[in-house]
Amino acid sequence: MFSDLSGRLKSVTISPRELEDCLDNGKWFDGSSIEGFTRIHESDMLLIPDASTYILLPWPRDQKKVARMICDVHEPGKASFAGDPRYVLRRTREEAEAKGYFYNVGSEIEFFLFRSKEERTYHDKAGYFDFSPTDLATDIRAITASTLERLGIHVEMSHHEGAPSQHEIDIEYSDVLQSADNVMLLKQTIKTVADDNGLYATFMPKPVSGINGSGMHTHQSLLNNDGDNVFYDETDNYKLSSSAYHFMGGQLRYIREMVAVLCPTVNSYKRLVRGYEAPVYICWGQRNRSALIRVPRYSVGRERSTRLELRCPDPSCNPYLAFAAMLAAGLKGIEERIKPPDPVEEDVYGFDDGKLARFYIKTLPQDLGEAIEAFRKSKFMRETMGEHVFSKYLEIKKAEWTEFQKSVTNWELKRYRNL
Description:
- It is a single chain.
- This protein is of the alpha+beta class.
- It has helices at residues 19-25, 85-98, 136-150, 176-196, 242-262, 268-271, 319-336, 353-358, 368-376, 379-385, 387-406, 410-416, and strands at 2-3, 9-10, 27-30, 44-49, 55-61, 64-68, 71-74, 102-114, 155-160, 166-171, 174-175, 200-202, 216-223, 281-285, 291-294, 308-310, 362-363.
- The protein has two domains: 2-81, Glutamine synthetase, N-terminal domain (Ubiquitin-like (UB roll)); 90-404, Creatine Kinase, Chain A, domain 2, CATH 3.30.590.
- The protein has twelve helices and 17 strands.
- The strands form four sheets. Strands 8, 9, 10, 11, 12, 13, 14, 15, 16 and 17 form a ten-stranded mixed beta sheet that branches. Strands 3-4-7 form a three-stranded antiparallel beta sheet.
- It is globular.
- The N and C termini lie far apart (51 Å).
C-alpha cells in the first residue's frame, strides 16, 4: 500500500511466492496513473515495501490470510521519489532528528456513520458521549477498537460525538511516521467494519449542513535524545518550555500558508465557520476550545504528556503531508525563536470584529481558494513539500477549486431557480 498526494490509499496484491523478490527488488508500477506523481513519458516507478510495517490483516480474501506492508516510492534507479508523500514526511522527520528532536503525534479522528453511501440518513440521534449500548454504531466502534488493538494500534478512547451519527476514535501517540501510517490504517478499518455491518462511514469534513463537522485534532510533543519531553518546564504557568512556545509560535505564524494541506478540500471550509466548535481563530489557550492550539492541562507525574493540540486539521487530509507541514512549522519556530501571542482564555466565538482586532486575532482562510493563494505565495511550504510536491499539489487544488466554482449546487438551485 501507498498513498497519492491527496491521501487516497493505493494498493497492489502479490502472492507469497513473490514476496522475497519484492522485498529485494520492489515492484514496478505506472506512476503516470497516480494523481500528482509523474508524466506519461517517465511513468516507470518502483514500490519498495517497508518491512517494519508488516501486519496480518483481519479480513481474509478467498478464505486466505492477507498481510499488508506500506511501500516507499522510488525512481527507477532506486532513489527516493520526491513526489512520495511518505518520503516528504520521512525527510522532514530526519531533519528534526538531526537537530536532536523526535516528534510524536496522536490524532483524534471524527467521522459519520450513515445508512448508505447514497443517502446522508442519520443512523442515530445520540449526542456527545451519549451511552447507547443497543446501538449498532456502538458495536462498530467497539469492533473497530478491538481490531485496531490486534493490528498493534493502541486506542485511547472512542465515543459518540456532538452531532447525530457522528463518532470519534482517538489513537495513542507514536513516532510521526508510524502515526501517519496508523491514521491511514484506522480510516481503512473504520470503513471496512462499517461496511461489514451495513453502514457507510465517511471522513468528509462537513457532510450535513447545520451541525458540527468532523476534525482530526492532533496532539504533538517533542522528545530529545534522552527521551525527555522538550515541551515541559515545571516553572511555567502552563508547564511549557521556551521550545514549546517557539514551536507553537511557528505553527501560528505559518498556519494560513499550510492550511491548504491540513484542510485540503472545498468542503473543509464548510466546517471552519463560527458556531460549530471549529477552530476558526488563530490563537491559543488552555481552557479555550475555540482556539486553534490548545494546551491540555498538566497532570502531576505526567511530564511526558505535556503537549500542544492543533485543532484545525480534518480527516480528509493526507496525514503524511499534514504532519510534515506541522513539524516543519514548529521547527521553524524554534529555529527563529518565534514568540506566540498572549493566550486567550475567553470564548473567541463571542468576539466581535473590534475585540478580535484588539487581541490581534486573525482568522483561517474562508474558503479553499483563499487557502490555495496563501499556499501558492509560501516560500516555507515550497521548501517543506519540495518543488515536485508543491507544484503538483498546487495544480491539483487549483483544478479542484476551479471545478467547484463552475459547478451549480443544490443550494443555488433551491434559492434561485424560481427567479
